[in-house]
Amino acid sequence: MSEHTDDLVAVTVTVNGMTHSRRIEPRMLLSDFLRHGLGLTGTHVGCEHGVCGACTISVGGRSARSCLMLAVMAEGLEIETIEGQGTPEALSRIQKAFQDHHGLQCGFCTPGMVMAIADLLAHHPLETDDQIREGLSGNLCRCTGYINIIAAVRELARERGPLT
Amino acid sequence: MNKPDYSDVVMRPKLVGKRIKRTEDLRLLTGTGEYVDDVQAAGMVHVAIRRSDRPHARIIAVDAHAAFDIPGVIGVYDMTDFEGECEPAVPTSRMKDYYATPTWPLARGKVRYVGEPVVAVVAESRYAAEDALDHIVIDYEPLPFAIRQVDAVKDDAPLLHEEAGTNVIVRREFVRGDVEEVFRTAPHKVGGTFRMTRKCPSPMENRSYMAQWDKRNRALTLYSASNIPGVVRDVLSGCLGLSSHQLRVIAPDVGGSFGGKGSLYSEEMLVCLLARKLQRPVKYVADRLEDLAAMSQAFDELIEAELAFDDEGRFLGLRADVIGDVGAFSIYPWTAALETVQVISFLPGPYKTEAYHGRIRGVLTPKPPTGPYRGVGRPSSTLAMERLVDMAARKIGMDPAEIRRRNLVRREDFPYRTAPGIIWDQSAFLECLEGACAALDYPALLDRRDAMRAEGRWVGLGFASYAELTGIGSRISVAPGMPINTGTETANISIDATGVVTAAFGVASHGQGLETTLAQIIADELGCAMADIIVLHGDSSLVPMSTGTYASRSAVLGGGAATVTSRGLKAKVLRMAALLMEQQTGDLDLHDSTVTSRASNQSLTIKEIAKAVYNQMGRIPRDQREDLVFQETYDPYLGTACSSTHLCMLEVDPGTFGVRILDYVVSEDCGRIINPMIVDGQVHGAVAQGIGAALLEEVIHDGEGQSVAASLADYLLPVATDIPDIAIVHIEAELPNNVGGFRGMGEGGTIGAPAAIANAISDALAPLGVEVNKLPATPDRLFALVRAARQDKPPAE
Ligand code: FES
Ligand code: FES
Predict the structure, then answer these.
(1) Are the Cβ atoms of B31 and A42 closer than 8 angstroms?
(2) pLDDT reading at B9 higher than 50
(3) Which end of chain B is more exposed for a tag (fewer CB within 10 A), N or C?
(4) Which residues are listed as membrane-spanning (chain A) (predicted)?
């Protein structure tokens, strides 16, 4: 891409608390920027059409599909990816619930699921299984049939209690 | 059925049978897993592929001139650039009248389906490579084609592979008894045309490959999102003229397969050839459109079938004529016989059917090749058979559970040889049916259905009973006539100088959790702590011969190999401990990583024994010292039956023609369960895929051979709101002939669900005279069926 230097634009984003400045092609997808620019390969890409939800991250506190955003649109914003949730040594509460309930098999949809659920727990009542199913219906999982993911969210929502 | 006694199998079962949390989860949950697209290498270049937009055409010329104007483009390649550098992969078979189509890295001379790879661009970035695709001009001469299998099968149809002399590249027939006579004299007959349309396996991770050329060793490493790294290594080393130690195929974390990553792909050959040519790491990652267009597809048989039976509902004879649409190529290594022949091999299902005539013709069409997909053949055969069973019950006014009860192979009949020659060892066919009925309280369920019907609602219930052959040993190949051995599995287990256990297998886990389940078995059999075990898999270099994970083999074969190898290693540990303790091996036990003596109060940990064996020379007499390494191959020889009954109740919305599943139960016998949490997860996922196949998923090729599905917004996968709660009943029937007593169970849900749903919708719409024999039962399709029925005769209500 060196031939394109003139076209590169500067972008500064904060990801998982770390601020990064890079010069990138304006057309670069945020998903590619995170994965290949910053090496945060926990965010996955399953379709690049905004359908599967594998690329879900948190932008400014709300979940967003990183394949539907250009990296330049994230200028100045706070982003959280799966790498900001927990570590193998210290899983986040959502990650722990996924392990306890066997909410993942191949793990490809999982980072997007976890990030979407973080948003659901923060903003949605999730009082019934139907509400949980509705909330998860924007994220595709081909392995689990969703049942154990629903069980994990059910437990997390119960623990959280009603939204105030 | 009695709870089996495993006392001879495991002395003190501890972990097998328990809900052990998965060890792979820690990395997969935290974004620290490594899928192929996560693998980086210095100097790596990227491939984008220009694919055919024609169903059948001769390639006249490729003009890539303008592509080089794009900054970052390194090279543009068509098949002529690789002539002399590789041989094709040829999926041979011992089947008669079979033609093996060759697979090349790029289309050679002709294109045969829309989506076939034709030209590869290599560039510094994927963005640049994709830019360049638009600047390539391919001149085609269109060729005639027959897109539908009923046309392609005709004698005068245009040929896709001229060398074959026909489009019908697979034929098989099974005959037992005088079927003609049975049908002539039978009191009752039912029949119909049944079809599961084409599906795309659609794992969430698209196919991804990265090849790296190691100049120092003149060797290639291929990172492949594959569930058959061993098979890929063996065939590609031959195609590329490398000795097998010059090619290592690694399947790191793989984001699902369901069969879609279980065959050799042109793109795998391509990245290897490019990496060798350019001497740089080369990565290709398919996008969703490419995988919808060029991943191996599923099913697509047209099944004409008929069942003859008597007044008591007993099956007298079965016959079927099947045309399988295999797509443009016979897939490596499974061949076009895999999916097609299984349809007629398994059509009689778990029932006693003495007279049988099944015939299949597998025909080439200009579509992506079909290949393995969860269930292989049996989702289609089960749909046909289970529909026939329900039609028969309806015809003589018998309860659908009762007619199954009367015809299922019973305990006293095992081992039972089916008409096509499959042997059912002991499995709980009848107990599964009764288990499903009990779980949903069948009489009460009927009452609920009838009550809802009385309110005018379209509610119905449906069964599907089936049996599958899993964990197939060396007697037969997974695919009929295929010359590759799929029937053995090797484990190499060693204890190193620090006491850590490393267990290497040929399997390739891609969501099944084999790192956990195999460690559970080893921990029990060897007597060590699970935390001390590392399970290695998904790498062709681990054991001398390996294939991978497919065909519900890994629990049976991998579990068997883990068992026999652990036992061999344990014997060595005990021999060394006996020498160190001056005890008889017969007096020693090994539990919790510690050898204890029943004859004295001595004990030694595995760690201490390892230290003595490897580092404290002299403690063990030189001529009796043995390394703590054991390798053994397990071969179950025959396969083992896994059986199940699904029962569901559902409602069709008379306004939208959408289907809502109200109740669902799976009652299954998968033998001894290693980890119930993982087994249930497999059932959930497989049933969800069956529901997708039954209600949503369909690859449609129009008359011009173009696929209508360009994204996951067109090819609909089930979402959370489509999947009901699923009750699961486990019946652990004893399995005397298999080490460990495990049966394979990863595919069953996809086999049973489509048939159960088709039966339930047919039951719901029975008052209208509608039968659902073609899936998916989309709202469109149901609307058309109901409208046709209503035009024919006045609505029933
Ligand atoms: S990759 Fe972004 S939604 Fe599928
Ligand atoms: S765990 Fe595999 S796609 Fe969800």
Answers:
(1) yes
(2) no
(3) C
(4) none
